[in-house]
Amino acid sequence: MPLNFKNYDTENFYDELIQPSGAPHPGARILVERIESLPDGEIIARQKAAEAAMYNMGITFTVYGSDEGTEKIFPFDIVPRIVEASDWEYIERGLKQRIHALNLFLDDIYHEQKILKDKVIPSDMILSASSFRPQCVGIDVPRGIWCHITGTDLVRDRDGQYYVLEDNLRCPSGVSYVLENRQVLKRTLPVAFEASRVRAVDNYPARLLETLQYLAPDNVSAPTVVVLTPGMYNSAYFEHSFLAQQMGVELVEGSDLVVMDGFVHMRTTHGFQRVDVIYRRIDDDFIDPQAFRADSVLGVPGLMEVYRNGRVALANAPGTGIADDKAVYAYLPQIVKYYLGEDMILPNVPTRICADEKEREYVLANLDKLVVKATNESGGYGMLVGPHSTKAQQVEFSELIRKNPRNYIAQPTLALSRAPVLVGDHFEGRHIDLRPYILYGRDIYVVPGGLTRVALKKGSLVVNSSQGGGSKDTWVLSQ
Amino acid sequence: MLSRVANSIYWMSRYLERAENVARFIDVNLHLSLDMPENYGEQWAPLVNISGDLDEFSRRYGEPTRENVMHFLTFDRENPNSILSCVRHARENARSVREIISSEMWEQANHFYLMVKGAAANQSSFENPHDFYTAVKMESHLFDGITEATMSHGEAWHFLQVGELLERADKTSRILDVKYFILLPDEQVLGATVDNIQWSALLKSASALEMYRKHAKQISPTRVAEFLLLNREFPRSVQSCLGRAAYSLHAITGSQRDAFSNVTEKRLGKLLAELNYTHIDEIIAGGLHEFLDSLQTRLNQIDDAIFESYFTLRPLTGISSTLTMEQ
Fold first, then answer.
1. What is the mean pLDDT of chain B?
2. What is the mean pLDDT of residues B212-234?
3. N vs C: which end of chain B shows fewer Cβ within 10 Å?
4. Chain B partners within 8 Å of A266 (Cβ)
5. pLDDT at residue number B190
6. pLDDT, tens digit, for every residue of B110-148?
7. Contact B325 A58 (CB under 8 A)
């Protein structure tokens, strides 16, 4: 049976490729026609070949707690997701505004805290957050930039409107899959790729390196940049190693670095070498046992002191976690207005803050309809999806919320948009989201592409890789 | 380059070379047992002896039968020197230095591992063991070839060379040691057909039979020992391996070939000079086994020295760092 979209049912969701009438969206026409014109079995064969290529290349993530099957390929679907040029222009504008405002917010929060004094955000909301780092108060970060690398998760509702679901300003991962998925797709669907005029993502590593070099102390002409990884057993190790390789810089572990004479050095076969910029993929908590968790063996003792003295740059800056706290997220329209005097371009999903008494009562009365999220969890943990939950889970969450309202927010359940996924010998719609990556160096740059994550389980809304999600290549069209 | 990275590269190539040599031992022994007179019996215990794991083997397996030895040396996960363990360690090391080696090298290390792991899961690969061991050798050769053709011959490549060559020198000396030990004490078989077959097999396990024949027409124990220890042209001889390892070590430090800048260069240079100025008759007169025993000890000392010279670097506790440590 030849593969086609004739019997494909969008089931009343917004579909990224196919319109309710059954015809493809204008930007997807070339792709859909190409797929339908391929001989029987060809798409399935290409999907298998793409998976084999990823396995041999070792494009894998590590699964905790199992012995030797510790590496899995991140499930990958061959049909790309398409973003039309006009949609992208809107997303890009919205993200630049957002990152600009968040950076000003971070700089303010760790210095004068004007936004708190002006009572735009309740003080205790920020100061009580576990992601607020008193150790970072008063630090003048290099070039005034805190969030150098951000991954912002976007979703679309039934009407096709984009919403920001959450910001990730700590150590967002996944960009290596964007680059590798693209490599594989270029080989798999070369004709459709070329004809669709897709924007390139391949210069991300070069852009990232520029962003990092920009942070080096002024008196350093040829800065030494390194990527700091927790090690090869970390779930994102492939990405750490991939980015270091693509940038042509050293990939270091905490034990490779040492603080000596007021600077950070790495241990090399020819003695100690000074390090100027560290792209760290280790959480704040573990980065320096003298400043944060004393039991950390992953970090570098004394690192924060060198950082405070401006003798090494860290990306992202420690303390950025406060900006992706889900309660702070709810205040983003006010934050944008406060610092930029503008209305927010890309809307948030309407969010109710359980710390507010009136909103809390509403949330408790509507647990069966809402999505409840813990404010400082990520990866799809600590979450209640109302319409899919049992009575017992709702009771459990209502107790949790009452006990610690600051820890929870609630949002309406969105009808996330879908895209066709190859299931056996036919296509079925699955829910997806989109994580574009934003670099903040000399200017703010949004990579024209991003990681499209797919909830591979039928009907599921959870796209995280730790919860059975997969990915697709994202084609941003140039016109 | 980072000390940790140099260490991983060194061990990556050592483990791959080790896996290849284990495959060589087993494959040749399989061939040998086909050619031996029936009442001679199969010789499998010496294989375990080569890697120095006889105690461990006897404790867990008992009799050194063909099946037991093959399993122990090929797929046993608890034996750190089995082919599976070696390839797994090599691949883990490769994974930790992916950004340093070429992506083709990584893919080959990964492929090698997946091949052996697949064979371990599907024991029917033992129905035709020769094919399997040949495949192991070829995977290793492929890795060497890819390395040669895709990796810059800079510092990382030199560490890789040193690991491979020291491992190879060690294994060549062990092949010689074990066979010599079995063969020579028995005066009766000396010079007989069986003897000839054994010495041919020994050469074959180092892929040396054809090259040896070009060098010396007759197979004699002394000439074989000379060829495998002192020949300057054969790439698996101890002299050749150590000569090239020394070249790489001096390329890393930039010091002169006839001088030394650290204890590794000193130890290796001394050993190499001895090989260069020793005649095989002197070695035989002093006892081949004794010579090989001391050779292996000195190779171990060189390995220790490499660790000290390049891989462990302790911070000089300057004043300010001491202060920081006390906070």
1. 85
2. 89
3. C
4. 2
5. 45
6. 999 989 998 988 867 677 888 999 999 999 999 999 999
7. no
Residues A313 and A371 in one domain: no
| Terminal C-alpha separation, chain A | 34
H-type alpha helices, A82-213? 85-109, 114-117, 123-127, 175-188, 190-196, 204-213
Range B310-317, long-range pairs (CB < 8 A, 24+ positions): B310/A269, B310/B3, B310/B6, B310/B7, B310/B159, B310/B252, B310/B264, B311/A269, B311/B3, B311/B4, B311/B6, B311/B7, B311/B10, B312/B3, B313/A267, B313/A268, B313/A271, B313/A272, B313/B3, B315/A258, B315/A260, B315/A265, B315/A272, B316/A260
- Quick one: A160 and A238 in the same domain? yes
| Domain end call among A279, A307, A340 | A340
Count of domains in chain A? 2
At residue A421, the 3 state secondary structure works out as strand
Residue A309 Cα, gap to closest chain B Cα (Å) = 13
pLDDT exceeds 50 at position A171: yes
The whole-angstrom separation of Cα B128 and Cα B69 is 16
Quick check: A266 contacting B, CB < 8 Å?
yes
Same domain, A278 and A257: yes
Residues A249 and A363 in one domain: no
Residue A82 lies inside a defined structural domain of this protein: no
> Which chain B residues are Cβ-neighbours of A258 within 8 angstroms?
315, 321
Q: Are A309 and A406 within one domain?
A: no
Q: Give the closest of B3, B4, B318 to A261, CB-based.
A: B318
User: Is residue A455 in a domain?
Assistant: no
Reported ipTM exceeds the 0.90 cut? no
CATH code where residue A311 lies:
3.40.50.11290
Q: Are residues A253 and A333 in the same domain?
A: yes
Interface contact flag, B4 A267, Cβ < 8 Å: yes
Percent of chain B scored above 70 by pLDDT? 87
- Label residue A405 left, alpha or beta by phi (over 0 means left) and psi (-120 to 50 means alpha): alpha
So what's the pLDDT on residue B286? 87
Domain harbouring A388, CATH code? 3.30.1490.270
> Is residue A272 less than 8 Å (CB to CB) from chain B?
yes
Q: How far is B104 from chain A (nearest CA, A)?
A: 9
Q: What confidence category does residue B194 fall into, taking pLDDT thresholds of 50, 70 and 90? A: low
CB-based contact, A460 to chain B, within 8 Å = no
Residue A46 has pLDDT above 90, yes or no: no
Q: Is the pLDDT of residue A465 over 70?
A: no
Question: A336: domain range?
Answer: 88-171+204-340
Residue A253 in any domain: the answer is: yes
| Distance of alpha carbon B202 from alpha carbon B188, whole angstroms | 19
Q: Which range, of A248-262, A400-414, B27-41, B139-153, averages the lowest pLDDT?
A: B27-41
A131/A257 same-domain check: yes
Say if B310 is an interface residue toward chain A (CB within 8 Å). Answer: yes
Average pLDDT over every residue of B33-53: 72
On whether residue A469 sits in a domain, the answer given is: no
Work out the pLDDT band at A339, boundaries 50, 70, 90: very high
State which residue of chain A sits closest to B323, comparing Cα positions.
A261
- pTM score, whole prediction: 0.83
Question: Which one is predicted more confidently, B150 or A404?
Answer: B150
Cross-chain residue pair A268–B106, CB shorter than 8 Å: no
